[in-house]
């Protein structure tokens, strides 16, 4: 029987692996070298830094992180020391898209703007960025995509330069991994030059990693009215975020864009499957348990006198009101980590059914494109 140490905030995991392993659960940020000395497997989230300091001299053979990113794992060290690793790539992509949808809907209402016809620049077109592009098209937006690695590999004309993104986008949204070096370095990608070239009065959104943005340059850009408004879910030095920047951000949240119940469950399932494969445990396929129902599973929308965009915006905000997350963080930034650990249940759009009254043309199809179920 293998020994596993697991982050105690990974949902639905308890009792799943116990028939095949001895499992110890701990707060992710408190896992130390001595805790994993005799463990074969470590199941993590981003708060456990898996580097030489943690891993050297331990029995760890496999690391599974229930997150789409893996910047907290020193992959070079792991590969040199025969430690296999796995990350749940794309597990929470739809959750992040829901977050972006709510942010766009909220900004449009706050500022009285129409999203249809606006241009959104998407930097990074992986699992999340590609889905954000689909969302934007459903909302009637023009889409520009920048992704240098994909552009090199695919040689497709759908990709544009970063300069074009900055010059022509009304909204710029970041969906890149954190690369500290190399040809596709993203550390401080959004620096003084970036904000100096961004279209004046553009909206800026970052849900990737805090270190992708130079916080000083962002504060300068906001203060100089280079950008209209900023949406930040990720921050430098989490969970100890800078309150000066927090006070300048229009929508601020505690790294929860990917924290839907659906996304968390997907991440757990992907890790369980990976552990089963790696250690050949012989488990039957683990089925995600029934997730908690949202408070209002069925929503009625009267479309009388409304534009398709206003209907979509209403549906998005009825199922996820991003300002509630914002207000919690503004009120208590010191509880950043607690807010993540105790994040309320948020279900994605497919968990909701919408009854349309007085439908307008194609509205049912557009709502279905977002993922909602339409009641006939």
Summarize the structure.
The protein has 376 residues and is of the alpha/beta class. It has 14 helices and 14 strands. The radius of gyration is 21 Å and the shape is globular.
Radius of gyration equals: 21 Å
Low-pLDDT ranges: none
What is the number of strand segments?
14
Q: What is the terminal-to-terminal distance?
A: 52 Å
Helix content range of the residues, please?
A: 25-40%
The helix-and-strand class reads alpha/beta
DSSP strand (E) fraction?
A: 15-25%
The biggest sheet amounts to:
6 strands, parallel
Q: Looking across the biggest beta sheet, what order are the strands in?
A: 7-6-8-9-10-11
The pLDDT mean sits at: 95
| Bulk shape | globular
Oligomer: single chain
SSE blueprint:
Blueprint: E1 2-7, E2 21-26, E3 41-44, H1 52-55, E4 62-65, H2 75-80, E5 84-87, H3 93-111, E6 119-123, H4 127-138, E7 142-146, H5 148-154, H6 162-168, E8 171-174, H7 192-197, E9 202-206, H8 215-223, E10 227-232, H9 243-246, E11 251-252, H10 261-279, E12 298-302, H11 308-319, H12 322-331, H13 336-341, E13 353-357, H14 363-370, E14 373-375
Parallel strand pairs: 1-2, 1-3, 3-4, 4-5, 6-7, 6-8, 8-9, 9-10, 10-11, 12-13, 13-14
